[in-house]
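Re: export button greyed out
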Amino acid sequence: MATSESELTAEVIASFGNTTDPRLKEIMQSLVKHLHAFAREIRITDEEWLFAMDFLTRTGQMCSDVRQEFILLSDTLGLSSLVDLINHSKGDDRATEPTILGPFHVANSRLLNYGDSIVTRSLTEGEPAIVRGRVVDVDGNPISGAMIDVWQTDANGLYDIQESNDVSGNLRGLFKADADGKYEFRTIRPVPYPIPADGPVGKMLRSVSRHEWRAAHIHAIVEAQGYRQVTTHIFDKESKYLDSDTVFGVKESLIKEFVKQPDGNLLLEYDFVLVKG
Amino acid sequence: MATSESELTAEVIASFGNTTDPRLKEIMQSLVKHLHAFAREIRITDEEWLFAMDFLTRTGQMCSDVRQEFILLSDTLGLSSLVDLINHSKGDDRATEPTILGPFHVANSRLLNYGDSIVTRSLTEGEPAIVRGRVVDVDGNPISGAMIDVWQTDANGLYDIQESNDVSGNLRGLFKADADGKYEFRTIRPVPYPIPADGPVGKMLRSVSRHEWRAAHIHAIVEAQGYRQVTTHIFDKESKYLDSDTVFGVKESLIKEFVKQPDGNLLLEYDFVLVKG
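Workaround output, generated via the alternate export path:
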């Protein structure tokens, strides 16, 4: 029966003392400590608390099979990038840096051949581009047979699974590195796009004068037997929002240049470097 | 473009730097600081993060017109009681201590007369009791005309608004203190009751070996012109769970005794003490 704020916090922490699972006990006690520290630091008012309850409720009720508003909230508060840093530090300075997975990955994309295009929709506009490079280990040795799973938005800023028409598979593909570790595919230059901003998270961003845009990027998951899988992006050096990506996914080492070729096509060359393990 | 956890936290905090409303800016920056500190302290895993996203989503989707699962979560994490302590410290040691409002208050209860019963349902079981006392200032002077709004569960542990039958108004009432500040009403002895435990919060409580019970109490909001309103409970001294009320609402000074009278009835005497302001 607490009579002060610190006594109350201690009492709540103690109420989790009988938790059988030691990890769950640690998590809940740390959660209460930090949640109470937050409320005490800002001297939260009754109205602010009630607003928070309503905000969280609206966020939950915005979620559906095709929308995860809590993950958007986690993304825009930098929590998703932090979870990524905590769990996927690259382990070797020479290796490709990881970044967030995002909500638009699809398992089991089509397996394509070396040099194929990932564009399946004839209406697709955008600047044609070739992406190529090698999958290598930290010493530069090729990793033959590595699998490269890539996905990006169309020129309209939408992933296939966000579109009302059935364009499933558009701008996705799975590639296998050849005997020299080489891969190559055709695509269009990625464009910046806004995260879904018609819900509570979009409203939050506007109320704090933040924009809802992500810098242009191509997603990739690269894996090979005997190596650590890496989930990453390739960012376009010319893109807007590299300095203010709204989900904090940009890393210096992941920014690359699309170079105009004599034939007018764009070429981006990028080697994925995997760590053994 | 952060390369370390602390750099990332700093970058996210800075992203709220253009917030026009200084209070909102303070809240969001403090939120990010404490949220990141929590994730870093427990070294949250990918799976735990995903579980948290799903837990919050399920909590939001449990909410409806008659159920507020996020407030239950706030209650069971001691946040609601903390918000109460931060905002409603009584200001004078002689005054009645406040405690949480809870989700079962109804505006505009019926105005009853001195001595009336708040029980409206003939089927109600439970031990008949009289509650009476005075509303006074911190020097013991009567506050004539003070309004006392009371509500409690029936003997089945349910508030009227939780019942499937229409029993609205049962075990609720509004009383006006007389010229001597006196009030009196008839009721039944309150019983301990479980918070709604068929959702994510109930599951959480079970997973950490906590029970879902509140100690027996009568709610009251007391107000009078020229005095600070107090929202409080009167707890039954004989109740179970006084030491482990699952929403952390019990305060020593609010525990009172139902005394058996020569006629067999129970009598609880309690004076509400208000602070000027």
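Helices of chain A lie at 5-15, 22-42, 46-62, 69-76, 79-87, 200-207. The button fix ships in the next patch.
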